[in-house]
Amino acid sequence: MDWLRYHRRPRDQPEPMDQARGRMVREQIASRGLTDPELLRAFGAVSRHLFVDSEFAYADEALPLEAGQTISQPYIVALMTDAARPPGGWKGARALEIGTGSGYQAAVLAELGATVISVERHRELSEHAGRCLADAGYDGVQLVVGDGTRGWPSGAPYDAVIVTAAGPSVPQPLLEQLKPDGGKLVMPVGSRVHQELTVVERRGSELVSSRRDPVVFVPLIGEYGFGE
Ligand code: SAH
């Protein structure tokens, strides 16, 4: 009967979450060229599975949220976070996120040491994100329900603005709320179906803009975004 034992497979065990997260950081983020140790530490520290209720929380893919919205694949969240890094680092930086969704991106920014304000137009998503953030230990994040295309002037100026929904152009109020010396904004800009990740850096009255990777995000809907 020896052959039977030999051929028996170990029972399929789901991979423990912290192992899956470590693998996500190595195989999806570091191996694709994002190597800032602080960024990798933060992605290794935030429990993504508390924000997306799916067995695929650490998979290399975007996942559905409530209200027809989507959380980006881990690499894209990392790419945007890396592109928005303030010149002096994240510790003590002021960050504005537009599109709270699950709260995961906000948690990453908080883990990096930023003071985070995040705006979401769907109240139920914002409330759910608030519970997830608290469960994950990030109750310092300030959540706002409203049209994020207008920004959040009372928290300005921001070292970093990350827009996690796609618009036809960068909303003017968000540019005005960037810190004049070195403030950075990252946002997918394009049509409703296809966009390019766009980075804008403010240097005094000058805005330096660059277009990077092709991406697909859900639409930014509001006064300075797409219509309903
Ligand atoms: N950053 C999120 C994913 C965001 S998905 C995460 O980490 O999970 C994009 C989100 O942008 C959606 O929840 C959508 O409702 C929101 N959104 C779209 N237009 C918006 C607007 N004008 N203001 C605020 N949120 C908006």
Walkthrough of the structure:
The protein is built from 7 helices and 9 strands; from the N terminus they run H-H-H-E-E-H-E-H-E-H-E-E-H-E-E-E. With 228 residues, it is of the alpha/beta class. The strands form 2 sheets. Strands 5-4-3-6-7-8-9 form a 7-stranded mixed sheet. A two-stranded antiparallel sheet has the order 1-2. Helix 2 (17-29) packs antiparallel against helix 3 (37-45). The longest helix is centred in the middle third of the chain and has 14 residues, at 123-136. The protein starts with a helix and ends in a 13-residue tail after the last strand. Residues 69-71, 98-99, 101-102, 104-105, 119-122, 125, 147-149, 164-165, 218, 220-222, 225 line the site of S-adenosyl-L-homocysteine.
Return the structural class: alpha/beta
Strand order of the largest sheet: 5-4-3-6-7-8-9
How do the helices and strands follow one another from N- to C-terminus?
HHHEEHEHEHEEHEEE
Query: Distance N terminus to C terminus?
Result: 67 Å
Strand content: 15-25%
Mean pLDDT: 94
Largest beta sheet, briefly?
Answer: 7 strands, mixed
| Helix content range | 25-40%
**Number of beta-strand segments:** 9
Radius of gyration from the CA trace? 19 Å
Q: What would you call the shape?
A: globular
The low-pLDDT segments are 1-9
Q: Helical segment tally? A: 7
Which helices and strands appear, and what pairs or packs with what?
Blueprint: H1 2-7, H2 17-29, H3 37-45, E1 63-64, E2 70-71, H4 74-83, E3 94-98, H5 104-111, E4 115-120, H6 123-136, E5 142-145, E6 160-163, H7 172-176, E7 181-190, E8 195-203, E9 206-215
Parallel strand pairs: 3-4, 3-6, 4-5, 6-7
Antiparallel strand pairs: 1-2, 7-8, 8-9
Residues 69-71, 98-99, 101-102, 104-105, 119-122, 125, 147-149, 164-165, 218, 220-222, 225 line the site of S-adenosyl-L-homocysteine.
